[in-house]
Amino acid sequence: MTTAAHQVPATAVVFTTPLQVCLDRQEARPGPAPGRRWRRTVPAVAVADQHALTQSALDTMTAQVHANGDER
User: Fold this and answer.
1) What values do phi and psi take at 61, rounded to 5?
2) Are 47 and 29 in contact (CB under 8 A)?
3) DSSP character for 32?
4) Which residue stretches of 1-72 are H helix?
5) Which end of the chain, C or N, has fewer beta carbons within 10 A?
6) What is the pLDDT of residue 23?
7) Separation of CA 52 from chain center
8) How far is it, in rounded angstroms, from Cα 44 to Cα 41?
9) Looking at residue 52, what is its pLDDT?
10) 4 vs 9: CA distance, rounded Å
11) Rounded-to-integer distance, Cα 14 and Cα 11, Å
12) CA-to-CA distance for 11 and 16, rounded, in angstroms?
């Protein structure tokens, strides 16, 4: 697969970490850094949504690679 504008191969690196591992890691993160208002975590629903979007994109990319015969 190449990008039309630059004629270079497109590459994706996707980590397939299980959702529960992501949620566990998120839960273990510390609170806000000293002097900061914001926590270092995001809501579990945001982690789950992002995980689902990533899995869906991975499924699409895999299908495109197989359709184009470009798997390396």
Assistant:
1) -65, -40
2) no
3) P
4) 19-28, 44-68
5) C
6) 94
7) 9
8) 9
9) 95
10) 10
11) 10
12) 16
Residue with the two structure tokens 């945001």: 46
Q: Residues with Cβ < 8 Å from 64, sequence gap 6 or more?
A: 1
Strand partners, 2: 9
pLDDT of residue 29: 84
Measured in residues, the chain has a length of: 72
Count the Cβ atoms, other than its own, within 10 Å of residue 27.
10
Give the pLDDT of residue 2. 54
pLDDT score for 71: 52
Q: Which two tokens stand for residue 54?
A: 């990533």
Q: What is the mean pLDDT of each run of 10 residues along the chain (72 residues)?
A: 70 87 90 77 92 89 64 51
